[in-house]
Amino acid sequence: MSKVIEKIKEEEDVEKEVKKKRKKSFQTVRGMRDILPKDQPYWQKLRKVIEKTASDYNYDRIDMPVLESREMFERGTGKTTDIVEKEMFKFKTKGGDDVCLRPEGTPSAVRAYLQHGMQSKQKPAKLFYSGQMYRYDRPQEGRYREFFQFGFEAIGEQDAILDAQLIQLAVRVFQSVGLKNISLQLNSIGCKECRPKYNKLLVSYFNNRKKALCMDCKKRLKKNPLRILDCKEEKCIQVVFQAPQTVDHLCDNCRSHFTMLLESLDEIDIPYVINPQLVRGLDYYSKTVFEFFPECGEDETQSALGGGGRYDYLVENLGGPETPGVGFACGMDRIVLEMMKQNTKPYIAPTPKVYMVQLGDLAKKKSLRIFDDLERSGVMVAESFGKKNLKSQLRLANQKKVSIVLILGQREALDETVILKDMESGSQEVITFKKIVEEVKKRLKKSAEIASKKAKKEQEARKKLKKA
Ligand code: AMP
User: Fold this and answer.
1) CATH superfamily ID and name for 354-443
2) What percent of the chain has pLDDT above 70?
3) Is the pTM of this model over 0.85?
4) CATH says 40-194+250-341 is which class?
């Protein structure tokens, strides 16, 4: 082989190697996803509504770690629940601690309540949170392995009025993000008093129909018969249909609690459907359980937007004193999907009304200072500092529909002045650096006044047209 050919081959090999390396690209891990900027306006709207509603109802924000003790969820959520038994991401740390990625927020909120002595403060403790949860689920639309929930918890009070108020709060969130036709399903699953008696009835009913149950429900019959009511298998649904219903076997206390809840919901005109099969998939619930569904979902069990209920024994189970509690959590990914399906209005971020154009290195450096001065005084500014060409910068300014363009060339940079171009009138004026913030603010105020007058006139004209 000639030396030239050898050299070419060598070069080709190097190129192949480089290409190979370049080809290696990464994707999100199965069940995880990026929430892209294009979808953020919906998320932003939802986040803002949650914050506002929390403040309106006097709930304080709490942020809890994503990594928690595995045992806490086994004791709290329940060892035999699908979430803990099948879906938890659990592992040992290098130090040997048994941990997991949180599959839900309620046990963490209760842990924080106890850890930080909140029981000695205001009662009930009213907490809300939002953040990522992790479940090793089968990924599909609206079901991910990493998903977001927001949740509200009221810890320390027994009264059914709190259950009603939490439902009212959730409904407010749905309405405020623009969702329509969200239905509420309710049930009461009793307490320590009445549940054991009801469980006995249920076991005897299902024992007589054991053959008709799925494998999982056969196991549930021994460990947690109530959860058979919630099974999604067609064969079990048939059997469950005739099963004794919790609401028919409540003790006096649970019955009057449930009645109070229903009457309170009637009072605030929140419609509901009592679903005797609703038990929720977590172990800690007592008395009230509820779930929200978008109406006309093809498969309603898959599309629950959120759910919650009372957990009067959870605080005790996690090592605290006897303390009642009630709360709910909603899936933010599912709410956003529903917002998109229902064509709701997303959040519209304020846009800059000023654009900075710069020419030359000195002007670029000085622009950075002017940009900062304007931002600090509350004026949003758009720019494209990386661009050199005047025409392309002005084109961008036009696209952004700003009302003021500030032009800083080499000469202006030396003189410490800026050319202020009013995009509405087309007029130009030279302003000194010192006066630029004041001048821009004055002009923006004026153009906002003109715009508001114009909008008012248009609205009046539209009203007149309607009347005519
Ligand atoms: P849960 O307490 O398990 O009923 O969860 C409350 C809400 O979180 C559900 O109603 C869903 O909206 C949402 N959710 C639960 N699991 C997932 C998941 N794997 N992916 C997306 N959202 C979920």
Assistant:
1) Anticodon-binding domain (3.40.50.800)
2) 98
3) yes
4) alpha beta
